[in-house]
Structures are given as C-alpha cells and as structure tokens.
Amino acid sequence: MGVLRDLVMLKRSRALASVALVALTTGMAAPAWADTLRDAIALAYRTNPTLLAQRANQRALDETVPQARAGLRPTVDVTGSTTYSRTDVRAGGEQIDTNNDGIPDTTVGEGVTENDSVGVTLGVSQNLWTAGRIASGINAAEANVLAGRENLREIEQQVMASVIQAYVDVQRDMEILTIRQDNLSVLQRQLEESSARFEVGEITRTDVAQAEARLAQSESDLANAQAQLSVSRAAYAAVIGQAPADLETPPALPGVPGDFDAAMEVALLENPGLRAADYQLQAAEAQVAQARSEYLPSVRATASYGGSSDLSRFDLTDRTSFQAGLTLSVPIFTGGLNASRVAQAREQANAAQIGVEGERRSVLQNVSSAYAQVVSTASTLQASEEGVRAATVAAEGVRAEAQVGLRTTLDVLNQELELRNSQVNLVSARRNQYVAQAQLLAAMGRLEGPDLEPGVELYDPQANFDRVRNRGALPWDGVVETIDRLAAPPIVPAQDAPDAPIDQQLKGEIIQTAPQTP
Question: How buried is residue 434: exposed, middle or buried, by Cβ count under 10 Å (0-12/13-18/19+)?
Fold first, then answer.
C-alpha cells in the first residue's frame, strides 16, 4: 500500500509540475476546474499540502491524550528466566537425588555441584492513587490538543489568505495583460497614422520617432506583463493544485466589518493565535500541578503468578507461587529533583502567561494594521476609478484636438500613457482592497474554508479525537480517574506575570487614532 501511495503522489507531482511548466512557458492555462474563487477555496481546502500536513500533525497530537490516560490502566508483563550454577567442592562429597526420581543430580562434599532451573512469572500492576499526577497529565494533554486545533485554524487561515491572493493576483495580471495588448494596438495605429501624416508633410520626422519610441516601450511593457502573469499562474498552481483558466470576478468577502471597534472585539475572542496561547497557559498550569504531585505518596496494587522447574525436566508446575499486595511509595529525598521540576514548570507557566499578553498585543497590531489597509485601499480604489474616468475623457479630447492641429503627437502619446497607467492603477487597487479585506478577516479569526465557502466538506478534528481518546479503555478507568482528581493539588496560577492585561488601554488609544471607513 505504501508503494502504491508513493506512485500516486509521484504521478500527481509530475502532473502539477507539467501544469506549472505550461503556465510558465506559454502563459496559457491547462484545462482547470477552479474557475471561481469558491472552487479554488474548496480545492485548496481538500488538497493543499501545508494544510494536510498540519491536520496530520494534529492527529498525532491527539495521540498524547490516550498516552496520558494509559496511566489509569494496569500494566501486564511476562518475565522468563533460566539459570545455571556450578560449584566445585575440595573435600570428598556424596551425590544425592534431590528430585526423588532415582537419578542423582546434586553432588555434596568433594566434587562438583551443578544446578539449573527455568521460571516464568506473570506480573500485573495497577495505579490506585497518584496524588493527581495522572489527572494533571491528562489535563495538560487535552489543553495541548485544544491549542493544536487553534494552530490548525491559524494555518488554515494562512492557506485561505494565500488562495485569495493567488486568485486575485492572476486576475489582476490577466487584466493588466489585456490593457497592455490594447495599448500596443493603439500605438501601432498611432504609428501608422503618424507615418501617413509625415508622408504628406503634416508632421515632422520627430513625431514619427516619438510614436516609434512609445511603441517599443509598449512592447516591453507587454513582455513584462506576460512574465508577471506566468509567475502568478505558477503561484496559483502551487497553492491550489491546478493551473488557472478564465477566472470569474470574486464575490464580496463575507463578514468584513465596517467598524474598527467591532473588528477588535471579534479578534480578541476568535483569533486562533490568542486562543492557542490561552490553552497553552492551561497546559502549563496543569504541568505545574503534575510536578507538585511528585511530593505526595502514591499507591498501586500488584500481583504476580509464576512457576519454575529444573531445566532438565521443564515442568513449570513443579514449583508455583502467587503474590498480591498494595505498594505505598512516599518520596522522602530526591536530591532536589522534585523541587527543580516544580520550579521549572512554574517558570514555563509564567512564560505562557506572558505569551498570552504578547498575543493580545499582536492581535491589536494586526487588526489595526489590516483595518488601516482596508480603509486606505478603499480610498485608493475610489480615487483610481475617478482617475480612469478623467483620463478617458482627456484622451478622447486630445485625440480629437490632434485631428484639427490643436495638439501634437507627443500630447496624444502622453495622454494615452496616462490613461493606461490609470487603468493599471485601478486594477491593482481592486486587487489590493480584496487582499486587505482578507487579511483583516484573518486577523479576526474568520477566514477559514467554511467561512468562505459554506458548501465545502468540513474537516472536523474533533472526530479523530473522539475516536482515539479512549483507545485501550477499561471499565474502571473512570473510578481511578475520579479518585486521582479528588486527590490532585490545586492548579497554581502563574506568577510574575503582568498584573492586568493592557489591551483595553491600548485598544482605546488605537480606536481614537484609527482611520474611519469612507
């Protein structure tokens, strides 16, 4: 099965490389199915390698919970042994039959004494009380799993942001390529017209040279546009898994806030980085409790059953034994090991507490920056639309005036260049606004696949967790866990952390200076 899977992945990699090569060398896309942004999001949600790898990492993290819960269950082991002994005696000796089988097998006195035996023992050990060590370990493992889910959300949002950017980059570059092609056609007609007018003496050779220079520059701009489109196509194929075809205009992103305060409130509740930091703090506090439990006694039940025999006859029923009992272990002196572990765990909890505050500040920075970009790009888009309108009117006017001799060829060329630059700026402004909105949603924690495409088949990490959590469970797990949790010491909050979060003060100051949506 592993070889077959590798062959399939190799074929897929070769297909993807072929698609990228076609996109780079010809600028033409191979047939593709992701022609809309929703299709691209759904495809990346199912097949993006970064996202799939993070999901696998999360499933691996889920396994730490059954590993922690294994302490609630007994351990069973079988021990086998065989021994041989030989003793040389200097004085005279006598052979005796120790097994009463009519064959002397042991020599006493002068001579050699030999003995051999074999034994097998079955042992069982069950924790009854660990002063909360197992319960705290389970708490820490479950908190780490929850933190991992938030990290998965963060990776998913980064992938979705990359999908959106790759999509609108291709769309932008396709529109810019069209603008450059149109500009080349216009300048070719302008050169033909200038040459004809030069032939009849209406303009000079300088006017023709100016038209030729602009046409050469337009050819260069067209080549650059084709190269940039190929780069964007390759990036699209890398993120989404297929080369783009004719992309439709993307729909409005859902849930983009028009108020900075509302965006901040959502981010402080739903940002995956901040939520992961909270869970990591819980895990660190559980590890402090686990380290403190090492100071307390623990109780376990043990039982063993075994048999032994001489190797020559190998009958384990010759000598059998059964033992059962309770073992109480009380730590008295560990050479400072337990104290060091507690101190280490508490400092790690302190770092986790400070990390939460650091994530709050990062959220404030990211949301405020993204919101400012949304406001800025909205103003830029509005100005670009007005610029295209004005440049279009001006270009038409200059061309008409040039027909009657009121404008020179250079005036026409300059105005045509200004019009194309305005069109390129408008296309770029639309792309920048869309990307800025996506970045704002990501900073808020609302750029997951199902948020953007409700019809996508949801990946639920809870399903795998539920499947593996009770792997190897036994009927008395709950009883042992309940006893252990009652005996567990309380979780000690992290010390030396800031007295109070400063996000409210910072948020207020940022809101006062934040740009407003036009």
Answer: buried
Dihedral sign, Cα of residue 366, residue 372, residue 378, residue 384: negative
Percentage of the chain exceeding pLDDT 90? 58
**Residue 407 pLDDT > 70, yes or no?**
yes
pLDDT in tens, 268-307: 999 999 999 999 999 999 999 999 999 999 999 999 888 7
85 contacts: CB under 8 Å, gap ≥ 6? 113, 114, 115, 116
List 119's β-bridge partners, or say none.
81, 308
What 8-state DSSP symbol labels residue 517?
A: P
Mean pLDDT over 345-370 rounds to 95
Residue 194: how many other CB atoms lie within 10 Å: 24
d(CA 363, CA 356) in angstroms, rounded, equals: 11
Q: Are residues 510 and 261 in contact, defined by beta-carbon separation less than 8 angstroms?
A: no
**Residue 295 three-state SS:** helix
pTM here is: 0.81
Q: How many CA atoms lie within 13 A of 315 on its CB side?
A: 5
Look at residue 513 in the predicted model and tell me its pLDDT: 46
Residue 307's contacts (CB-CB under 8 Å, 6 or more residues apart) are: 119, 120, 316, 317, 318, 319, 320, 321
| 3 state SS of 329 | strand
Retrieve residue 181's tokens.
């092609």
